[in-house]
Write a structure and sequence with these properties.
Layout: E1 18-31, E2 34-40, E3 45-51, H1 57-64, E4 71-80, E5 88-99, H2 114-119, H3 121-124, H4 128-150, E6 154-155, E7 161-162, E8 174-177, E9 180-184, H5 189-199, E10 201-209, E11 222-231, H6 235-256, H7 258-263, H8 269-276, E12 280-283, H9 284-293, H10 306-313, E13 320-323, E14 347-352, E15 357-365, H11 369-378, H12 387-391, E16 400-406, H13 407-415
Parallel strand pairs: 3-5, 6-10, 12-13
Antiparallel strand pairs: 1-2, 1-4, 2-3, 4-5, 7-9, 8-9, 10-11, 11-16, 13-14, 14-15, 15-16
Helix pairs in contact: 4-6, 4-13, 6-8
Catalytic activity: tRNA(Asn) + L-asparagine + ATP = L-asparaginyl-tRNA(Asn) + AMP + diphosphate + H(+)
Protein name: Asparagine--tRNA ligase
Keywords: Aminoacyl-tRNA synthetase, ATP-binding, Coiled coil, Cytoplasm, Ligase, Nucleotide-binding, Protein biosynthesis
C-alpha cells in the first residue's frame, strides 16, 4: 500500500508513520554517505535525511546530481526532532525525481539586485521571505472578508471597465471600448454607493488602477482596494468602523502570523500599541500648523504629500485620522462641512504610524441632489456622464459614508517594509509590466 500524501505543515500529526511528501528541493548538503535534502511544498519546510544503504543505490547516486528546485516525491518515516524548525524530519526510504532542472537555478544564495529579482518575480516568489509576505497578505484578505461578513455586509463586485471617472482625470488608463471611451476603474466606490442604497451595508474588493507617474515607495499602478459603503452612517460612525477594522486586522496578523513576522524580522511592539489604544484624531488645519512647526512649507488648501505624512506619523505611536480637508483637495462627491461654511469637506484620511502614511481615505458622501449637481458644475464635470449616480440622490437619498483601504499599503506597514513592490505577487509600476 502506497504511503499517504501529507503536506509538510501536517507532518507533526504523523510521527512514526510512513508518508509521501511532494514538493521541491530548496537546498542540499551531503556528508559522505548521507544527503540532507531541504524540502518545501508551499505549506512548510522539512529536512529529509537520505542514508546510503537505506535507499536503492541508484536513488542515492541520483540525489547527488539534484539541482535546486528539482521537483520530487519523497517517501519516508516522520521522526520528531525538536531542533528542526518544523519539529520533525523525514527519514527517506524512497525518492522519485519528477523533474531535475537542466541548468542552475538563477536565484542563488548570493545577493541579487532588486531589478533582477523583480525580473525573475515568477521564481522569486518561491523564496522564504516571499513565502512569509504572501501568507501575511492572505491572512489580511481573509481577515477583511470575515470582518465584513460577520457585521452583515454584502459583497458587491464592481466593474473594472467603467465610463465614469471617480477620482479625477489625471490618473486614468483610457482605452477604446467598441465605439466609445472607457477607463480602467480607479475605484469601485460609485457603484458601491448604488449597492448601499439597495442593501444598506456593502463592500467591493478588487483591483484598481491609477495612471499616476509616481515613483515613490508607496505607489503601484495596479493595486487592490477594499471599499465599504454604509447607508445611514455619518463620518464619525465611518471612522469608528475603520478603526475597528484596522485593530482587528493587526490582532489577526499578530495571532496567526508570528512565524512570518519573525522571518521578516518585524518588531511587533509598534503593532501591539496599535491594538492597545484608541487612534488619534487631528483636524486638517491643526495638521498643517503642526507640519509647519516641524519644518514643512505646506499651506492651507494643499493635500498632504508623502513627505508630510511621513513626518506627521512619526509623531504618533498609533494611527491618526486627519479630518476635514479643504474641498478643493478632495473628490467631488464629498459632503461639504456645515461647520466650516463649506470650505472643507466631511472626510478623513487614516495615516499609519512609523512614517507609513495614508492607508485609508474616507468621507461622508453628499446626499443632496442639488448640492452634488452644483459641485459637479463648479468642477466643469458633465452631469450626463453621471446620470445614474445622480439618480441615487433623486430616489430615496439618505446620509451615507464609506472608505477605501489599500491592501498593499496596509501590508507594507504591518510588515515594516521600506517599499510596496514586494507585497503584491506581480507588481505593476510605471516601468514594470513583466512578468
Amino acid at each position: 500500500m502506497a504511503a499517504p500524501w501529507v503536506y509538510i505543515k501536517d507532518l507533526k500529526e504523523h510521527v512514526g508513520e510512513s508518508v509521501c511528501v511532494k514538493g521541491w528541493m530548496y537546498n542540499k548538503r551531503s556528508s559522505g554517505k548521507i544527503h540532507f535534502l531541504q524540502l518545501r511544498d508551499g505549506s512548510g519546510t522539512v529536512q529529509g535525511v537520505m542514508v546510503k544503504g537505506e535507499v536503492p543505490d541508484e536513488q542515492f547516486d541520483a540525489a547527488k546530481g539534484l539541482w535546486l528546485e528539482a521537483s520530487l516525491e519523497v517517501t519516508g518515516v516522520v521522526r520528531a526532532d525538536s531542533r528542526a524548525p518544523s519539529g520533525v524530519e523525514l527519514t527517506v526510504a524512497d525518492l522519485k525525481i519528477l523533474q531535475n532542472p537542466s541548468e542552475e537555478y538563477p536565484i542563488g544564495k548570493k545577493d541579487h539586485g532588486i531589478d533582477f529579482l523583480l525580473d525573475t518575480r515568477h521564481l522569486w516568489l518561491r523564496s522564504s521571505r516571499q513565502n512569509a509576505l504572501m501568507k501575511i497578505r492572505n491572512e489580511i484578505i481573509w481577515s477583511w472578508r470575515c470582518f465584513f461578513h460577520d457585521r452583515g455586509f454584502m459583497l458587491m463586485d464592481s466593474p473594472i471597465l467603467t465610463g465614469s471617472i471617480g477620482e479625477g482625470a489625471d490618473g486614468l488608463f483610457e482605452l477604446d471600448y467598441f465605439d466609445q471611451k472607457a477607463y480602467l476603474a480607479q475605484t469601485g466606490q460609485l457603484y458601491a454607493e448604488a449597492a448601499a442604497m439597495a442593501f444598506g451595508k456593502v463592500y467591493c474588493f478588487g483591483p484598481t488602477f491609477r495612471a499616476e507617474k509616481s515613483k515613490t515607495r508607496r505607489h503601484l499602478t495596479e493595486f487592490w482596494m477594499l471599499e465599504p459603503e454604509m447607508a445611514f452612517y455619518d463620518n464619525k460612525m465611518n471612522m469608528q468602523l475603520q478603526e475597528d477594522l484596522v485593530v482587528d486586522t493587526v490582532k489577526n496578523v499578530l495571532a496567526n502570523c508570528e512565524k512570518e513576522l519573525g522571518a521578516l524580522e518585524r518588531d511587533v511592539e509598534p503593532l501591539e500599541k496599535v491594538v492597545a489604544g484608541p487612534f488619534y484624531h487631528l483636524n486638517y488645519r491643526d495638521a498643517v500648523r503642526k507640519l509647519n512647526e516641524l519644518g514643512s512649507d505646506i499651506k492651507f488648501g494643499d493635500d498632504l504629500g508623502a513627505d508630510d505624512e511621513t513626518v506627521l506619523t512619526q509623531q504618533y505611536d498609533r494611527p491618526v485620522f486627519v479630518e476635514n480637508y479643504p474641498k478643493d483637495a478632495k473628490a467631488f462627491y464629498m459632503k461639504a462641512n456645515p461647520e466650516d461654511n463649506g470650505e472643507t469637506v466631511v472626510c478623513s484620511d487614516l495615516l499609519a504610524p512609523e512614517g507609513y502614511g495614508e492607508i485609508i481615505g474616507g468621507s461622508q458622501r453628499e446626499e443632496d441632489y442639488g448640492r452634488l449637481l452644483n459641485r459637479m458644475k463648479e468642477l466643469k464635470m458633465n452631469p450626463a456622464d453621471y446620470d445614474w449616480y445622480l439618480d441615487l440622490r433623486k430616489f430615496g437619498s439618505v446620509p451615507h459614508s464609506g472608505f477605501g483601504i489599500g491592501l498593499e499599503r496596509t501590508i507594507t506597514w504591518i510588515c515594516g517594509l521600506p517599499h510596496i513592490r514586494e507585497v503584491i505577487p506581480f507588481p505593476r509600476t510605471i516601468y514594470r509590466l513583466k512578468p
